[in-house]
Amino acid sequence: VETSKISSYTLTKKQVSLYQKICELRFDENLTWKLVADKLNKLGYTSTRGGQNTSSTVCSTYFKIRKHFERQNIYHPPDLDDVELVWE
């Protein structure tokens, strides 16, 4: 049986807040990754691990969290091709 739930983890409130702010700045205000990082630093947001935001950490954070949300909506039905039914 395949599932996307085996190694799933819960995002912290900080991670969700950071993701929402990145989306707001990147897509609502049409800023580049570098400008998003600069704006987050000015607003007092730290990276997921507590450091300064850079364009690469912001981009990485966005895509990793987006992948996490996409993974939650995937259903893998069990593969039942190799099942043998034995009546006793």
Summed up:
The chain has 88 residues and is an all-alpha fold.
What tags apply to this protein structure?
single chain; 88 residues; mainly alpha; 51% helix; elongated
3D architecture notes:
By secondary structure, the chain is mainly α. Helix content is 51%, strand content 0%. The chain contains three helices and no strands. Helix 1 crosses helix 3. The radius of gyration is 19 Å and the shape is elongated. The protein starts with 12 loop residues before the first helix and ends in a 16-residue tail after the last helix. The mean pLDDT is 84.
| Main beta sheet strand tally, sense and closure | none
Number of helices: 3
Report Rg.
19 Å
Helical percent range?
40-55%
Please provide the ordered H/E string of secondary-structure elements: HHH
Number of strands: 0
Strand content: under 5%
**Unreliable residue runs:** none
In whole angstroms, how far apart are the ends? Answer: 26 Å
Principal-axis shape: elongated
Mean pLDDT: 84
Q: Which structural class do the helices and strands define?
A: mainly alpha
Chain-wise SSE layout:
Blueprint: H1 13-28, H2 33-43, H3 55-72
Helix pairs in contact: 1-2, 1-3, 2-3
